[in-house]
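Posting for a labmate who doesn't have an account.
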Amino acid sequence: MEYRTLGRSGCSVSALALGTMTFGAETDEAGAHEQLDLFAEAGGTLVDLADVYSAGAAEEIVGRWLASRPADVRDRVVLATKGRFPMGAEPNALGNSRRHLRRALDASLRRLGVDHVDLYQLHAWDPLTPLEESLRFLDDAVSAGKVGYPGLSNFTAWQVQQAVDLAEHRHLAVPVTLQPSYSLLVRDVEFEIVPACLHNGLGLLPWGPLGGGWLSGKYTRDQRPEGATRLGEDPGRGMEAYDRVGSRQRTWDVLEVVQDVAEAHGASMPQVALAWLAARPAVTSVILGARTTDQLRDNLGTVQLTADDVARLDAVSDPGRADYPYGDVGAEQRSREPAGP
């Protein structure tokens, strides 16, 4: 297992993280504990949660696992969780307000059975709460020892920049990571979000690295998704997710190249997709979301991509861009060469 620092912090984490969104839903407690044991045995350290995963059940399952394992196993785990989305029916049971985040963090700590988490992330932007209010809460939580580092999730590039600028200007704890959707099928983050994170030293923790299951190789031209996928979680919305991950022809072209590269290396398609993503600029740790232990075991397998492999994957997955602002015309507008005498 490779280890990297958590953004510009000094905290080391595994280059693959264990996502827990399936815990308490598609994966029962026994299966979740089996996944956690396998992940830890493979050298994995970063476990990513959120309070809304199975309405808090995922945190409770991980909490019971931590309580039942030896101290040397518990001490290696780097815990990350998030707050923002509804955890009740009352008006303040959601959002990034100080009131909601305080309650959300305390509830997460109780469910996990710990006195602090290493990374606490705003699960998404909140247009109703002043950003400074959210950042001051995170700074207070860091000062109180309840949070090691603040992080962001599902923020756009301008929102990331505003958060970093405001935190630095007010001398508050600066976010160290961002969780975006990112994969061979979802690359638009490279236009603005990745550069913003590189500029500010934020590490990326990509979710959905297999494109809602498409890069797992389980779908073919004749067998499309009919139920829930990571990019379309409601039953019956599989085709909507299919349309959202890119043009249909591009999707099949990407899958064909991923399969070809996998066969050439004697690897699986997920292993190829994960290896490509883990090597992208600014990526700290790729979040794995497996339903079963066998899926996780395969995802933890390694493959060494060649420069030619990467070039082929880059080319076939290129989402394309309009001439302005990201294409040739836009690039020309922003370019400048030193002038001679």
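Reply:
Got it, the structure tokens are right above this. The longest strand covers residues 147-153.
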